[in-house]
Amino acid sequence: MVFAVQCPEPKCRKYMLVEEEDRGTIVLCLVCKTPIRVGEPEPSETSRPIPGRRS
Length: 55
Ligand SMILES: [Zn+2]
Fold this sequence. Notes:
By secondary structure, the chain is mainly beta. Helix content is 0%, strand content 29%. It has strands spanning 2-6, 15-19, 26-28, 35-37. The protein starts with a strand and ends in an 18-residue tail after the last strand. The structure holds zinc ion (ZN). Zinc ion (ZN) binds at residues 7, 9, 12, 14, 29, 31-32, 34.
């Protein structure tokens, strides 16, 4: 299974697909070569918990 990681470089912010087995390793951004630590899949906008809001 693959999932996306986002380049932390503000000027790049490229999404790249990494393999599940790459979790816990460092990959280089294909565009700017910034090292990206592969952790848990980035929460998408829709799955991000929304802070409790009362009506
Ligand atoms: Zn990049």
